[in-house]
Amino acid sequence: MVWKPLWLGVCLVAASGGANSAQAADAHVSSGLSLKISGWFGFLAGLSINRTGAEDLDREYDFATGARLQFDIKSVTDSGLEYGGRIRMNNVDRRNNVTIDRVYAYLKGRNGTLTVGDATYAGGDLGYVYAHDTLNSKLGLGAGWGDGLDGKFYLFGGSDAFYALDPTAGLGGLNGKDTKIKYTSPSIAGFSFAFDFTPVAGGRNAANSPGTGGGTNDHAGPGGANDLINDRITRYENVITGGVNYANTFDGTAVRLAISASTANGVGGNHDLKAYTFGGQIGLANGVWASVNWVHFSSTFRADKAIDSIVGDLSHASGPFVVSLGYAYTIAEKGNLLRSTFTNGADLETSHSAALSLLYNFAPGFSSFTELIYERNEFRSGQDYEASSLTSGLVLAF
After folding, report:
1. How high is the pLDDT of residue 204?
2. Which among 5, 65, 105, 317 could disulfide-bond with 287, CB atoms 3.0 to 4.6 Å apart, if both were Cys?
3. Quick one: pLDDT at residue 125?
4. What gap in Å lies between CA 332 and CA 376, rounded to an integer?
5. How far does the chain reach from its first CA to its final CA, in angstroms?
6. Own/partner pairs for 284-290, CB < 8 Å, 24+ apart?
């Protein structure tokens, strides 16, 4: 197992190059530390239009609130080395307690950026191509509020989200809170790349999360000595993700192409992770945006069966308006162990999800969203699941 320390050494060497050791030697801070506090508050009203097993519901509508609070620290030395960190708190509300899902520091020099801590995976950064999210973020929404197939619609419609927007979350069984070391290259003629290494990744076992197997990992990095022992919630070890990205603009047309690969060793009876992605996105000067992203799992912690997801999006931005139509299609090989949370359906065959979104920006930092969501999951045995929901809400960002 000599490759493990060798790989870690490669990460550290790349990182030291990214941070420029010559610059790092200069500890004098010319501009001082700066602190930026940002976040948002969101309100959502939801209606379950129809759902398999709806007779079990006592009502079809409800309200929800959510908030995020983020602290960013940054400084630059006389020689130009930038360094800083982020602490991000989600679920800042009265029900879910505060969830700390980003705690990391970084060093950024002319040769790239080194990030250490609980940041997103490189595979998640470069394996995620979704035009609606690009436009959603420009309006200041984000975090799943008004974010189509990456959104909060499941709060009312009920969803197992049997599709993959990137190779890490959901079906992949990873989580951005896993502690890692990541290197991101600078952009050269539009091309950039990134890779990372994570010693251990935890999560909920299948019995606690019968759908995609998602959920919050109870330990992955901060567990100390506990992370040296594989318990029932340890999924993977030696996680490596990476990818290459190309982004450029030609006469007002924004183009992006991205590929990624992710691998990890399954532990405690879990299968290995092997995932690959390829995606493309285009944004025209007239406000029309489109994207297609393909995510292929040849193996996940659940089973060594092929699962393919294709997610497409067509959006149009005009002034304060954004309208988007997204569609996700998943086909899974027999014996994949994916089963429904809502019915006795087992061994997923195909999944269809569609999202129609309308976003409107009233003023800087103040936006609204309305979304109509449809989902159908078809299984090789048991009852299929079908649901549709309507959500609408407001987001105040600062």
Report:
1. 57
2. 317
3. 92
4. 14
5. 48
6. 284/252, 284/253, 285/251, 285/252, 285/253, 287/316, 287/317, 287/318, 288/314, 288/315, 288/316, 289/131, 289/132, 289/134, 289/135, 289/313, 289/314, 289/315, 289/316, 289/317, 290/131, 290/314, 290/315
The pLDDT of residue 129 is: 96
User: What pTM does this model have?
Assistant: 0.85
Q: What is the pLDDT of residue 206?
A: 43
Cα 354 to Cα 372: distance, rounded to the nearest angstrom: 8
**Cα(92)–Cα(98) distance, integer angstroms:** 5
Amino acid at 143: A
- CB–CB of 183/195 below 8 Å? yes
Mean pLDDT in consecutive groups of 10 residues from the start of the chain, 398 residues = 44 44 40 86 91 86 90 93 93 76 93 94 94 86 81 77 90 83 96 95 55 47 73 88 96 96 93 96 96 97 94 95 96 95 95 95 92 95 95 92
